UniProtKB/TrEMBL annotation:
One Gene Ontology cellular component annotation held by this UniProt entry: endomembrane system
Lineage: Eukaryota, Viridiplantae, Streptophyta, Embryophyta, Tracheophyta
Name listed for the protein in its UniProt record: Bidirectional sugar transporter SWEET
GO MF annotation terms: sugar transmembrane transporter activity
Reported function: Mediates both low-affinity uptake and efflux of sugar across the membrane.
Source organism per UniProt: Lactuca virosa
Length: 287
């Protein structure tokens, strides 16, 4: 009888050990599966962020270069005509602030932000120099004054951040908040051109490529800011994407009227040349 009880207790003990081992194995598998899932999720999120960042770099540089035909026309004609300097002044100031935001001592691990906006500062500076060269005296002075104010504000912000603020979290919050305002200003700067388009019913002075890449650049950086969520990048670029869509809608609306206006202007110019040629011939035949 005692042997039977001992045998039963031994079987129960062995069963308990087996159940404990099975529980450990199952739990280890769950932990291993979860860790693999979290690691793969982190890797995939980082890969998505990097891909969107590279795409954002490409679209941003393309956005900055999209106005090359405009400045080639200015250079060829020797005049800025009715082109507004506001988008280029806003972009110059905005890119300078984002270069500061992406610095390691302000917001670490933001190399893609620095490279994009560093290129933007250089390109916009070239545009503004050309604009100054072919502007009248009054417009040249205004543009130069605004550039000087922007440089002084940026330099003052660098000094304040480095001397009075001592953590990257606070520096990111301060510089990021100011950069958001500047970024919205950059995307909203074509509103003055949009007003001109509505008034004249012509998109002659609103370059299509600028509107297209304004939309695509805003969209890319908005998606980039979601992995992980960065409100300082997401908010202004989301607004920029919406404003880009509005510009494209406006362009589609007034594209045909613009072609008609340009064709009528061309015909008028040709008629004027023909009249001048006839007048010259008449003067030569009747001295």
């Amino acid at each position: 009888m005692q042997f039977l009880q001992f045998h039963r207790s031994n079987i129960y003990f062995q069963g308990s050990i087996i159940r404990f081992i099975n529980w450990c194995v199952i739990d280890f598998k769950k932990i291993h599966t979860r860790s693999n899932f979290s690691v793969s999720a982190m890797v995939s999120e980082e890969a998505i962020r990097t891909t969107l960042g590279v795409a954002g770099n490409i679209t941003a540089v393309t956005l900055f270069l999209s106005t090359v035909p405009t400045f080639f026309r200015i250079w060829k004609k020797g005049s800025v005509e009715q082109y507004s300097p506001i988008p280029y002044l806003a972009s110059f100031f905005n890119c300078g602030l984002w270069v500061l935001y992406g610095m390691p001592f302000v917001h670490p691990h933001s190399l893609l932000v620095v490279t994009t906006n560093g290129a933007g500062v250089a390109i916009e500076l070239i545009y503004l120099v050309i604009f100054l060269m072919f502007s009248d005296t009054r417009k040249r002075l205004r543009v130069a004054l605004v550039m000087l104010v922007e440089i002084l504000v940026s330099g003052g912000l660098v000094l304040v951040v480095l001397t009075l603020v001592h953590t990257t979290q606070k520096r990111s919050a301060i510089v990021g908040s100011i950069s958001v305002a500047a970024n919205i200003l950059m995307y909203a700067s074509p509103l003055s051109v949009m007003k001109l388009v509505i008034t004249t019913k012509s998109v002659e002075y609103m370059p299509f490529l600028l509107s297209l890449f304004c939309f695509s650049n805003g969209l890319c950086w908005f998606l980039y800011a979601l992995f992980p969520f960065d409100p300082f990048i997401a908010v202004p670029n989301g607004i920029g994407a919406l404003l880009g869509i509005l510009q494209l809608i406006l362009y589609a609306t007034f594209y045909k009227p613009t072609k008609q206006i340009l064709e009528a202007r061309k015909e008028k110019a040709e008629m004027g040349l023909a009249v001048m040629e006839k007048g010259n011939v008449a003067q030569l035949s009747h001295p």
